[in-house]
Amino acid sequence: QYTNLLYNMQGLTVMGTTLDDAHAVRPYWEIDGELPTAADEILVGENLAETYRFAVGKKVGLTEPTKAEGTAKQLTVSGILRTGGAEDDLVVMSLDTLSEFTGTAGEFSIIEYSISGDATTLSSLAEAVNSSDSGMDAEVVRRISQTQTGITQTLQTLIWIVSVIIILLTLISITATLNAVVSERSREIGLKKALGALSKEITREFIGESVLLGLLGGLVGAGAGIWIADFISQRAFAVQLDVNWWVVPLTMICSVIIAVVGSLLPVRRISKINPVDVLGGE
Questions:
Q1: What is the pLDDT of residue 276?
Q2: pTM of the full predicted structure?
């Protein structure tokens, strides 16, 4: 609920709300101090704090305009609110505290919901409410929805670019590593050939090792990726990550494919290893 109250005969815009719910709906709120917990505590927007020199712990006397000559109700500033938006010019208090000024207990002027979805989905929901006979006017808070949509799209693009770069670097790394492994195990390969092993059998052995390493790497990578994604989601967007567990086997399959592709060039060298050259006179 929004209304105007007087401070030293100057009008201030006041928002009355359920404070815990308001903070949950607006996770971008930055509070220097504490969220009000007592009936005589308020939040003050950053701009108001600068204009009137409000500080945490200061007593602020507010009166209802129709009772300007009455005694001001003393409230304590529990925190300074910083959002970069309209809230920076507001006084925020609990609905119960505001109703003591206005006498309108249980009345609301605005109901706010936080719904997961992109800008298109939210706009469709707003249109559905507006087209009903509920008597309500639904409006999307575009500053939040569009910003989050833009951030999400930017992150998705960045993730795709980083993923492609990582895949290319991984292929190069696997190829270089297996080249070194083939060189180090050339005597072992030569000995196996001398004992009758075929090149394709040794090749299958190397590819099998690559598959096992790919499975292990995919499992570890999927687990680490889910943990990091959940950490970022909670810190950046204040939401719990909804994990799609089918991503884990998909990641393992992709990891195996990358490992096998990266091993193709090195294992081709196996057929070119001559037992006579690597074993010498042994």
A1: 72
A2: 0.49
